[in-house]
Design a protein that fits this description.
CATH topology of the largest domain: TIM Barrel
Number of domains: 3
CATH superfamily of the largest domain: Aldolase class I
CATH class of the largest domain: Alpha Beta
Largest sheet: 10 strands, mixed
Number of strands: 23
Oligomer: single chain
Amino acid sequence: MKLTTFAQSLNDLNLIKDQGLQEVILGHQDFSRFGKLKTEDFFEFSKRAKELGLKVIFEWDILMTENTFAKLALEIVPLLDSFDSLRVQDPGALEWGLKNTTKPLQFIAENGNHNLPGLQGWIDHVQGRMERIALSIELPKIKIEEYCKILKVPCELLGLGRILLFYTPRQLLSPLSEDKLSFNQEISAIGESEESPHKGFPIIENRHGTFMFHIKDFCLVDFANELKSLGLGFFRIDLRFSAFDQLKEIKALTEDFNEDSFIEFKEKYPQDLMRGFYLVNKTDVLFPKLKNHRLQSREGNYLGEVLEAEKGSHLAIFVKNFKGLRKSDKLKIVHPKGEVFEALIYSLRNLSLEEVDYIEPQKTALIQFVGGVWVKSHVFYQHP
């Protein structure tokens, strides 16, 4: 497993080389969400990286309108000779790179396809040009292992960095400032919720829009050796918002993990850390609890469901049981809160408001109103 990271200064390049990394991701301010390099800076960084023997990866990870894409497709052409691989997130940029360059392609699939067929589809689409695919941090360990074994290209995963919660192309912070801000200026703030006690969300506004991050950074540094054994190809370290000199400590921890050193590293790191869904993805754990257990039983004497309860008028019951509903039937009605009502039918009408003795299955029956019964109540036959 190899480490990969970003550089935002020439000193970063030297440290990357000193730590034995073999590549660097460079972000141009027009193409990268958090890149700060102007064109002349990019050329300088690329030249220096190649002098150091580093592979240069060009990051094109912004999401674009058609007009922005057409503009950038022209502006990237003079830069092509200065990087080795093209790293994209927008499928349009991926298609452009496939048709207009011979560069190896890296696809960021962190916010799109998380399933195996979808990822394999992108790999197949680029016809052998896919050099790497970046997986979502929402995948648990068992899925990461499965994908690394089945996908025929190296997989990459964020090992340390911020977790993006929200993005909009709109500038949300600058209207709050009394100062007139330039287009190139980056604004940082800390957000909090008015509806909950949550606070401390880092927010950044730049030329590409507004980004809000989780209060904790994502970290799998303590699982690096395990990820290596799972077959992960690349472990991405994103220190663009923290101290880059911690790269040395991180590199040492990924090679020879030590609990005391990791605790010391966490104490110095500017944000609290979390491992997200790595051990298990429990986003669906509450689903069974959200279902009303009182309304789960639909076997045996189940007749149907109350569609409407009109006080002083009627209950509308959709009849689901193949036996239908007869005027002589006795009913048991179970309220969503668990209350049970009994009813002997003395008025049975169809939707034409005609009094009848029988309502067929998959039809709606109108019986007399029963006080306390709500919509979604379940109706059962009550045997004598």
